[in-house]
Amino acid sequence: MTIKNSDTIAAIATPRGNAGVGVIRVSGSGTSNIMRRLSSARLEPRTATLTGIIDHQQHLIDQVLLIFFPAPHSFTGEDVLEIQGHGGTVVLDMLLEHVLSLGCRQARAGEFSERAFLNGKIDLAQAEAIADVIESQTRSAVRGAMRSLQGDFSKAIHQLVDNLIHLRMLAEAHMDFPDEEIDEIPSMEFEQKLIALQRELNKLHEIANQGNLLRDGFHLVLAGRPNAGKSSLLNVLTKNDTAIVSDQAGTTRDIIRDRLDLDGIVIDVTDTAGLRKTTDVIESEGVRRARKELAKADRVLLLIDEAEYDRDVRDELLEYIADETPVTILRNKIDLVEKKSKVISEGDQCEIMLSVKTGTGLDLMFQHLREVTSAESLPEGVFTARRRHIEALQKAKNALSNAAQNLSPVVQLELLAEDCRQAQNSLNEITGEFSSEDLLGRIFSSFCIGK
Ligand SMILES: Nc1nc2c(ncn2[C@@H]2O[C@H](COP(=O)(O)OP(=O)(O)OP(=O)(O)O)[C@@H](O)[C@H]2O)c(=O)[nH]1
Ligand SMILES: [Mg+2]
């Protein structure tokens, strides 16, 4: 996939607002022509040249630095010109208008990255990593996205694809010799190779899951009866005075969101209206919204006033939460009943006795959060991954599970080869070697202009 004789595009690559420097990018086959009309200065490749830019009425628009990157050694793989002007909104608009009048058009969102992809400078996972570096909310997320951009994720995918091709070739070679006895098919060899592939794929899937957490963050929802201390906890978690705290039951009605950085993992915390049966129209709407948030949670922190706590109260509140959603029960306000903080674990169930107000037991809660968000155990080489990548890896895993079923009692070569082919296609979707135009369009249009 190469784009030859593409039209020429231009866009402001820096954010709007006032800054010392603002950058306009130009890319495409007409770039050198535009360059000549823009300035009489002779440009050496990849060397900054200071020059004035004069408009059609002979007014000086701005004093700029021009840098020319001849194809193919540029970000897009085409001729690229970077214009570094002063970073004011109006002056950059004037500069861009002038550049556009010299024979190019405004770039669409993500079009520079799309060209870099189409010209083979980067693959799809790397193009997405550029957007992820820019949008990263924590230092770990930046490091993870940079690893993807450097190609760590893509390399792991390619390695898997190579092994899959090898297995397919083995199956297809046997298919080409149908006269051979069936028991001559080395089923052991197939099985060993398949198991090794599944192991690698599982490992990558696990890393990608952690990488997705790095990118998208972890959704924590605070829930409980009115007055349980949810808003107090939100304020403590985020070290902000975001939510109103009062001893009136039913203070919070709207959804309140804030975020915190827990050892490199972004945690989106949502405070909700107290859960109770009510005839108040506004409060019922609050409870309806709370339920909606509960349905999206990665984990719920369910606060219960220790003075009210018993199994019935707990089970009644758990009714609001789907069975598959992980829940931690926080038995709050132990200061009022003079109990000690502690963690009570029973299988998957975890209850923590604490006081949000006095701070007793908060350390136990933070430690627990580190464990459940895997912030603590984030391994070194994690690269950011998107939901789309995880889904593709899951599809590849399913295809290999099917393949494993086609090994016994006899090896079914056609089916095995077909499953491998499907796994290969799913993996290639990640790097963009097997992707529909529609998917590419959706990915790149979510980028911003100038990227
Ligand atoms: N003694 C004590 N009081 C607490 C504790 N945590 C919260 N409170 C108090 O309990 C009251 C209710 O706290 P909020 O944080 O507003 O409770 P909420 O769950 O958000 O309540 P709603 O928004 O009404 O659903 C406030 O007066 C808090 O100061 C605690 O650990 N100990
Ligand atoms: Mg509240």
Task: Describe this structure as you would to a colleague.
The chain is of the alpha/beta class and 451 residues long. The protein has three domains: 9-123, Probable tRNA modification gtpase trme, domain 1 (Gyrase A, domain 2, 2-Layer Sandwich), CATH 3.30.1360.120; 131-214 and 386-432, Four Helix Bundle (Hemerythrin (Met), subunit A) (Up-down Bundle); 224-372, P-loop containing nucleotide triphosphate hydrolases (Rossmann fold, 3-Layer(aba) Sandwich). The chain is built from 15 helices and 13 strands. The strands form two sheets. Strands 8-9-7-10-11-13-12 form a seven-stranded mixed β-sheet, with helices on both faces. Strands 3-4-5-2-1-6 form a six-stranded mixed β-sheet. A hairpin with a 2-residue loop joins strand 8 and strand 9. Helix 4 runs antiparallel to helix 5, helix 6 runs antiparallel to helix 7 and helix 6 (152-175) runs antiparallel to helix 14 (413-431). The longest helix has 30 residues, at 187-216. The radius of gyration is 29 Å and the shape is flat. The model has no long low-confidence stretch (mean pLDDT 90). It binds guanosine-5'-triphosphate and magnesium ion. Magnesium ion binds next to helix 8.
Which small-molecule species are bound to the chains here?
Answer: guanosine-5'-triphosphate, magnesium ion
Task: Tally the structural domains.
Answer: 3
Overall average pLDDT: 90
The CATH homologous superfamily of the largest domain: P-loop containing nucleotide triphosphate hydrolases
Q: Which fold name fills CATH's third level, the topology of the largest domain?
A: Rossmann fold
Succession of helices and strands = EEHEEEHEHHHHHEHEEHEHEHEEHHHH
How many H/I helical runs? 15
Low-pLDDT sequence parts: none
Distance between the termini: 20 Å
Strand coverage percent? 15-25%
Shape: flat
Strand order of the largest sheet: 8-9-7-10-11-13-12
Main pleated sheet = 7 strands, mixed
Helix content: 40-55%
Class computed from helices, strands and strand pairing:
alpha/beta
The CATH architecture name of the largest domain reads: 3-Layer(aba) Sandwich
What top-tier CATH class of the largest domain fits best?
Alpha Beta
